[in-house]
User: What shape does this take?
Amino acid sequence: MTGTGSTLGAPAERREGHQKVTGSARYAAEHPLPGRAHAWPVPATIARGRVTAVDTAAALDLPGVLTVLTHEDAPRIADPDDPTLAVLQDPRVPHRGWCVALVVARSPEEARAAAGAVRVEYAVEEHDVALRADHPDVYEPETANGGNPARREHGDPEGAFASAPVRVDAAYRVPPLHNHPMEPHTSTAHWQGDQERLVVHTSSQGTTTVRATLAALFGMPEDRITVTAGHVGGGFGSKGTPRPDVVLAVMAARRTGRPVTVALPRRHLPASVGHRAPTLHRIRLGAGTDGRLTGLTHDVVTHSSRIKEFVEQAAVPARVMYAVPHSRTLHRLVRLDVPTPSWMRAPGEAPGMYALESAMDELAGELGMDPIQLRLVNEPDREPDSGKPFSSRHLTECLRDGARRFGWTGRDPRPRSHAEGPLLVGTGVAAATYPVLVAPSTAEARALPDGTFVVRINATDIGTGARTVLTQVAADALGTPLDRVRTEVGDSDLPPAPLAGGSSGTASWGWSVHEACTRLAGALAARTGPLPDEGITVHADTTGQADADSPYARHAFGAHFAETSVDRVTGEVRVRRLLSVYAAGRILNARTARSQFIGGMTMGLGMALTESSTMDTAFGDFTESDLAAYHVPVHADVPRIEAHWIDEEDAHLNPMGSKGIGEIGIVGTAAAIGNAVHHATGIRFRDLPLTPDKVLAALAD
Ligand code: MOS
Assistant: This one.
């Protein structure tokens, strides 16, 4: 510790906090370039078919309208790797909400008004948007998201289940969920010169990827494109890949010769920027009377769109969590006329651990065993699926420490054993896990003659505190106070870096920043005399280091504890307390880390109680299209939340010793809350969210 407040672990305040609270931080729509125009997409009003005619005459007559792009005349782009970006290229409508025209006008209001005046005719085909486990088109894909094999099997799971003395066989359902970041997806595009340079400001989790995508789509070298994302109002995965807004903005700017902003209205997000796919789970657990698991099957059925195979990898955490000799974890998929699902905070782990950790609670009930004890007796000494040793695994410590802090000991395990007037009160526990991911990155560190330093890296700070933590990593390696280091992020002209996703940002970027700064410190120590005016600069590239396969299974773990009350009269579930303990390697910034954990837990509370999107089978679209209908938890929903962590030393991670912390907070939280509701009421709900209508109906039975 240097005592400067800059060392790793210190609760350093956000570097950009002042800019954000004073409104001077610029977001993607806040680039008022001269002559800037605004565009508004026209979404398809059918779920399947094709556009037969677009009548733009009435729209073009309205004030302020500059042009309307349709599939007939929009600039052509190369076939994208991601089919969701192939907008306005052909008349096909793969799902409701697909962009079928784009109005460009002087103001957003004029663009919106004219979008309403565009007349689109369709050849309508019959659609199918209903996910069922017995859908005739269900198939088994090769892989699920993240490159995970769709199926893994060990031993004889059917036989083990059939012969187990204690069994749980249960089906769970997690509905479609939407990311709904505070800042909707937005891009401002600006062609310079004779359309030879392209500058784009976009709300994205990684602009190195956006630049590469635009270069491929518009057929130009990357060095003629700059993409910035200086400040981003959240993403939760939905901004992990480029979205139609950026392609549309570039097209509209090319057509009009003006800078153009496409700021997607909130109502367009559900159909156009991804969702967490609904998952239907069947879990079977077989155990001995001592609680040791003998067989486990976790079968998941989920959906994707017609245009892209995305498989929510919800059975993957069952490959990591518990010692069991006979297991099957399987994902199957049905392609429907639905919008394309994508990443949402802890894809796979969040819904998968809801199901698995609910089933473990059910098994504890069958056994008459404490649910913490059940988890302790099933601790594996190696990763069950791969057989690899864990680089570190402190789930046991998280459970024990959490139990102590929460006051678990002495709990009356009997369901419905505690009432306060009309309120039934209960407590629940669940485990959490999230993999340690990392990708190669480059970075640059410069020492200036005035004793200050500049670190440059195209990391993206999507509200997590990334630029602050990277500054800490740099200051620590340089042995200098935090305020001597300036960190530049969020611009594709900076040294290339991977996206803010998979909870891997700090590990990936931090590794290259650490490398550059360590070498710079060495270079400074080896020289005498003043620095040249331009300073000295060191580049680092962790290719071959940060992507190396590890002989270790690397995951973060955690334990959640919840206390809930259930109102017998109204069916309302309130979370009274939420407390979690994490083992996530070394915590690099106590303040921003706590914020990440608490944010994830709050999102898990939403998943448990309030958040859900409904696929309307008649219209073929999600019915919740704004924040009035899609209930993200508000302050009144969220109790005192405590996030704690244990000091975890792990030498097999990265130079900082950190594991990712952005996603684990949402993993298992809904199970802890559901388990508490079961303890309160004696009723097992297996279909999220636990809204008053469902709870009241079950209480009345
Ligand atoms: Mo996160 S869902 O990997 O951006």
Notes: Residues 205, 236-237, 240, 343-345, 347, 501-502, 663 surround dioxothiomolybdenum(VI) ion (CB under 6 Å). Residues 143-177+276-436+551-700 form a domain with the Aldehyde Oxidoreductase; domain 4 fold (CATH 3.30.365.10). The first strand starts at residue 37 and ends at 43. The two ends are 61 Å apart (CA to CA).
